[in-house]
DNA sequence: AATCCGGGGGC
DNA sequence: GCCCCAGGATT
């Protein structure tokens, strides 16, 4: 089957099976002349980086409700955007999202550039997102290559070279299959195929529109692909987290540095995270060691010992003193919310006792 | 090219 | 527990 017929059979499948998403213009609506808003496509694609559709939906609705246009988002305070992003992970995305919004609002008159090269120059937009915005928002014949496409291509062509070594080959194979007609629908179609049919486990080959040309199916290697190089074991680090509540009920927090782990997010003061951290509270007080919380990041496990105190003094900068009304646990990244939940129990216990 | 960066759902 | 996910920035 040649590349043109491959694309056509996938588009025919997509016409009947396209999933509905809050940011998507489905194939029927698009055929009737509807066009997606580039702002919504960009926002959704950034949120969808390494994140599932189900997890993104509520965040997308919330963001577009608060900020209907990119100029609205560009005018938003950093702290509010970081707070709204809390829980979604990969917080550099939120910082770059704001940078990008402000560049588009100020330098591009609020209109997204259409060509892939210019899109690539914007913060937080890499090869995948540049191609997806160009293809989906502007229907330009660009090739999207994400984890779905890599898996589909590795199986369609029975590629046994492991990722990421095989990425250039899979990208080239994907490019050869991208049609000049309806490239935006095609991009969404191949990702839908990977998400619903050509899944990592238990792929639904019997109902796949590409069953006939699939070489991995022919060779019975579908579930072995894509192959990957073995990954390193995650080390475990330890640390202390210090939760202080003033006698007025306010909480003592800090804003984390813009770069690095949980960059730009709100958090509790803490020790170094290492094999043998020192218990060094941020200021004088009767600190009481409570229980531990566990959390796993991309590349290490973390065990934090929660240490709490009551304080009558507001500690100086850089610490932030947030009143009970100002403080919202939902503004915290998940590991810091675990610390808070653990400390809450102990504060409650000491009050009762 | 390798490393760093979250969190949730499936199994 | 491990794997995966509509990846990008940094070094």
From TrEMBL:
Quote any Pfam family the record assigns: NUDIX_4
User: What's an example GO BP annotation here?
Assistant: base-excision repair
Q: What is the protein name for this chain?
A: Adenine DNA glycosylase
Q: Which organism is it from?
A: Pacificibacter maritimus
Looking up InterPro entries in the UniProt record yields: A/G_AdeGlyc_MutY, DNA_glycosylase, Endonuclease-III-like_CS2, Endouclease-III_FeS-bd_BS, HhH-GPD_domain, HhH_base_excis_C, HhH_motif, MIG/MutY
Give the EC number(s) listed in the UniProt record: 3.2.2.31
Q: Which reaction does it catalyse?
A: Hydrolyzes free adenine bases from 7,8-dihydro-8-oxoguanine:adenine mismatched double-stranded DNA, leaving an apurinic site
Instruction: Using the record, list the residue span of the signal peptide; answer none if the entry has no such feature.
Output: none
- Domain (HhH-GPD) ranges: 47-196
A GO molecular function annotation here is: 8-oxo-7,8-dihydroguanine DNA N-glycosylase activity
* SMART domains per the UniProt record, alphabetical: ENDO3c (SM00478)
Against PROSITE patterns, the record matches this protein to: ENDONUCLEASE_III_1, ENDONUCLEASE_III_2
Of which family is this protein a member? Belongs to the Nth/MutY family.
Entry keyword set: 4Fe-4S, DNA damage, DNA repair, Glycosidase, Hydrolase, Iron, Iron-sulfur, Metal-binding
Entry's cofactor comment: Binds 1 [4Fe-4S] cluster.
Gene3D superfamilies tied to this protein = Helix-hairpin-Helix base-excision DNA repair enzymes (C-terminal), Hypothetical protein, domain 2, Nucleoside Triphosphate Pyrophosphohydrolase
List the cofactors. [4Fe-4S] cluster
Describe its function.
Adenine glycosylase active on G-A mispairs. MutY also corrects error-prone DNA synthesis past GO lesions which are due to the oxidatively damaged form of guanine: 7,8-dihydro-8-oxoguanine (8-oxo-dGTP).
Q: Is Iron-sulfur included in the keywords of this UniProt record? A: yes
């Amino acid at each position: 089957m040649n590349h043109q017929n491959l694309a056509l059979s996938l588009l025919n499948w997509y016409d009947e099976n396209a999933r509905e998403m809050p940011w998507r213009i489905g194939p029927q609506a698009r055929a009737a002349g509807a066009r997606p808003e580039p702002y919504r496509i960009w926002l959704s694609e950034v949120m969808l980086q390494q994140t599932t559709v189900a997890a993104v939906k509520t965040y997308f609705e919330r963001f577009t409700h608060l900020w209907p246009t990119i100029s609205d988002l560009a005018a938003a305070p950093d702290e509010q955007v970081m707070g709204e992003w809390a829980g979604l992970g990969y917080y550099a995305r939120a910082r770059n999202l704001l940078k990008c919004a402000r560049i588009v609002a100020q330098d591009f008159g609020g209109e997204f550039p259409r060509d892939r090269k210019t899109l690539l120059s914007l913060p937080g937009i890499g090869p995948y997102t540049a191609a997806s915005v160009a293809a989906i928002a502007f229907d330009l014949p660009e090739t999207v290559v994400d984890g779905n496409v890599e898996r589909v291509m590795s199986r369609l062509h029975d590629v046994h070279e492991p990722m990421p070594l095989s990425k250039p080959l899979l990208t080239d194979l994907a490019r050869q299959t991208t049609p000049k007609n309806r490239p935006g629908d095609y991009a969404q179609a191949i990702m839908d195929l990977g998400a619903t049919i050509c899944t990592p486990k238990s792929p639904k080959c019997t109902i796949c529109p590409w069953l006939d040309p699939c070489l991995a199916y022919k060779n019975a290697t579908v579930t072995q692909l894509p192959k990957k190089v073995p990954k390193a074991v995650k080390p475990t680090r330890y640390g202390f987290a210090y939760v202080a509540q003033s006698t007025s009920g306010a909480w003592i927090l800090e804003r984390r540095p813009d770069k690095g782990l949980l960059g730009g997010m709100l958090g509790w003061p803490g020790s170094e995270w290492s094999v043998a951290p020192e218990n060094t509270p941020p200021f004088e007080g009767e600190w009481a060691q409570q229980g531990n919380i566990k959390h796993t990041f991309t590349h290490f496990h973390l065990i934090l010992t929660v240490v709490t105190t009551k304080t009558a003094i507001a500690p100086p900068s850089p610490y932030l003193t947030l009143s009970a009304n100002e403080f919202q646990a939902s503004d915290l990244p998940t590991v810091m919310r675990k610390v808070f939940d653990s400390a809450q129990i102990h504060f409650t216990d000491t009050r009762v006792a």
